[in-house]
Amino acid sequence: MTQASFCPAPKLDAATLLARYGQPVPRYTSYPTAPHFSPAVDAATYASWLAAVPGDARVSAYVHVPFCAELCLYCGCQTAVARSRTPVKAYAERLVEEIGLVARHLPGRLKLSHLHFGGGTPTMLADEDFAAILGALRETFEFAPGAEIAIEIDPRVMDAAKVATLAREGFNRASLGVQDFDPAVQQAIGRHQSCEETQAVADALRAAGITALNLDLMYGLPHQDEASVRRTVEAALGLDPDRIAVFGYAHVPWMKKHQALIPEDALPDAGARLAQAELVADVLARHGYVPVGLDHFARASDAMAERAAAGTLKRNFQGYTTDDAPVLIGFGASAIGALPQGYVQNLPATPAWHKAVEAGTLPIARGIALTDEDRLRRHVIERLMCDLSVDLDEACMQHGFPRGFFADEIHALEPLIADGLAFRHGAVVEVPEASRPFTRVVCAVFDTRLVASRAAAPEQKRHAAAV
């Protein structure tokens, strides 16, 4: 960001800002966002997009594993509890088949630079599952030298054998789910996990050569307060992670029914959530972590912090990333892929996904084809999300649009500028450092699809609170 550090703080108190701008907005891991996907993009569309990928294109891949040993009440992921080995084994076998289906439509063995296993709990997979899936991926793609192979881990279901498997299969980055270490919070969200067992897993991963470690924390959970959040962050720092993601809990029980089991009267209000987020940022800054985008932090020497400083950070469905491959291929139920032509999402229900792959069909449920204007707006929103700054004239020039295209948006920004959530000099729009938690509110000004959907269905709930 060029000048935001010299900007004044927001001009209104936090309570007024939250009342005025705390409405639900997307997390902007894509643009257009997933609620605007439609069945008009189907398996045939996806097949044609895959076939059109240039033979020298770099790609990345995401593998979704929708199983957990138990369900955490805060979870918003597409997952289910697996009581036995049977469904996980069957799912792994079908993943190999899906990889083969995709391979048939690709122009050749493309070079893969990033691979991410998410969930759910990917380590529900057995040793032979990992071997089969990684084997299929290596047959389909040429893994680039130094390719990042990352996995999300629940430390509660890890052991030495699983760590050895991950090391043997080439994983080199792991994200450890923590959320919160306070016993009262853990009881309320149904996730009991000590700092000691998390430390043991981190130590085992490093000893096995998986040295790039991320941590996931959350604020806004039931029974959290500033003191308990501080204790969790300080304990997490003892694990010495390279990156820390700090997500605000999204309470959406109308979408995730199990969240209704969380007592709403125990949830922090909007002001308390904001105070918790600011506290975390302050503690991490004091320990040398650099803020990255809206909710990530990294050591200054980490590639993510370097990308942020250089203005080349990216954002996709896994959040902030150093992955700038133009093609992201998703495997597994509900997985989302991104190609130059648009986005595709697999069938979210595991049985339907199984059935489609078994029938030899790409298991696409929906997607969206990008227009030139979508690409322009995606660029603007991504730069705001990553850099807290965007030059609108430069963006328009890059995408073949006239200067002044965003005149309506500049007008719509005026109230936010008046309240100190954004400022503008010429065609450059920036979010002041003190207003970082409100970045998504500024992005929403450029989201014409959100504006249209609100006008059409003002009561429909699609997103979580802005802060």
Q: How would you describe this structure to a colleague?
A:
There is one protein chain. This protein has helices spanning 14-21, 43-51, 86-105, 127-140, 160-168, 183-189, 195-207, 226-237, 270-286, 303-310, 350-358, 372-387, 392-398, 407-418, 439-444, 448-456, and strands at residues 58-65, 67-68, 80-81, 111-119, 142-153, 173-179, 212-219, 243-248, 289-292, 296-299, 314-316, 319-321, 327-331, 336-339, 342-346, 364-369, 389-391, 423-425, 428-430. The chain is α/β, with parallel strands linked by helices and 467 residues long. The chain has two domains: 34-369, TIM Barrel, CATH 3.20.20; 371-456, Orthogonal Bundle (Arc Repressor Mutant, subunit A), CATH 1.10.10. The radius of gyration is 22 Å and the shape is globular. The two termini are 21 Å apart. Mean pLDDT is 93; it is low at 1-8.
